Amino acid sequence: MIEKYFSAPKTLRRLRRGLSGPHIDGFADALEQQGYKPTSAVRYLRAAAHLGCYVQRQGAVLSDIDESTLEAFRRHLSRCRCPQSNGGKSGYHAQFGVKLFHRHLVQRGICQSRQATETHHDEPALVTAFHHWFRTHRGAAQPTLRLYSRGARELLHGLGDDVSQWSPQIVRKFLLDRASRCGAGTTQKLITSLRAFLRYLSFRGEARDDLDLAIPAIAHWRLATLPRCLSAAELDRIINACEGSAPARLRDRAIVLLLARLGLRAGDVAQLRFADIDWRNGTFQVMGKGRYQVRLPLPQDVGDALLRYLECRPQVNHTDRIFLRAIAPFKPFVSGDGVSSVVTRALQRASVEAPARGAHLLRHTAATEMLRQGVPLDQIGLVLRHRSIDMTAYYAKVDVALLRQIAQPWSEVTA
């Protein structure tokens, strides 16, 4: 109800008139549930009423509002002389407020969503089928699906839709031409996505069985580099940089400790739910890549940090995810990118010059710290959920003291 934000009878009557009037109270309740501050909600409600007046003067109705209407309204704000605007033309707040109101109308079925009004002619049916198959049978996450679908789409656009006519020679030439225009990192991602797509075509019997073998590999020695990690002192500085009683700092501390103590991936933290934690037994469940589930112990300091955050966590009913955004609307992280951003900001607050940015830095740090404490490689692999001990052996190179004990002297070459 808008009475939570306005008290003057004249203002209440004005806001409830026009096209937006029947939906203004529901919009006010939605803003409150999403955690917007009263000062912001007042601006957004006035903008919503202003939008209704503008649409009515254009001879349209609320169901006609789309992206083009919002853009026309944005241009209207700079020259607005509407007597009914009631302060709802304050630049940025008005533009953001009408976007929120349009989203509210879409959720209520008044307006159509962008996805419902757009037709995606550029997405081949074969790529769509590949996307669904990989998600269903391989349990791939959305970022992986986007990457693989983009590679498949490029291949189809480059070689044509008749995949039965593809040969190893033209597939290899496509990749080499594409690799000449991008860096090594992009090329490696393209190689991975193209191999997955070509194996899918072979599985369906629509292309030759040996096409994936035509994709060359980039020369790379997996054990040639050292893990990028932090020292114990640098990790302590990052954890201390998350001290504070504000909900955002309590959330950041819990996230950093989960990553640093247990080596979780960013996506693991973003997907963590209340039902995953067994407080009685001090464990929690993680679902990693390919729907691989494992139950891990919950260290005391991590559990304490989680409880402190949950005591002040915003109360929302639309999600059972543990970690939420720190600003309104209070929603769970869309992906692990939000978790990596938490780590990046903590590094900046701690003034730590790290060899890398993001959540994976703390995963490497957790592994190397366990190794320094004498934890065997096979147990480290269990915590990190590696499928092969060879993956965990990557971290053995950081134990320089142990390597010195087994290093053999290099005999001088005599003429």
Describe the 3D structure.
With 415 residues, this protein is mainly α. The chain has three domains: 2-117; 125-214, DNA polymerase, domain 1 (Orthogonal Bundle), CATH 1.10.150; 232-403, Intergrase catalytic core (hpI Integrase, Chain A). It is 55% helix and 3% strand. The chain contains 19 helices and three strands. It has helices at 9-15, 21-33, 38-57, 67-77, 92-107, 114-117, 125-138, 142-159, 168-179, 184-204, 232-240, 247-262, 266-270, 300-312, 336-350, 360-372, 377-384, 389-393, 400-406, and strands at residues 277-278, 283-287, 293-297. Strands 1-2-3 form a three-stranded antiparallel β-sheet, with no helix packed on it. Helix 3 crosses helix 5, helix 7 (125-138) packs antiparallel against helix 8 (142-159) and helix 12 (247-262) crosses helix 16 (360-372). The longest helix is centred in the middle third of the chain and has 21 residues, at 184-204. It is globular, with a radius of gyration of 27 Å. The N and C termini lie far apart (93 Å).
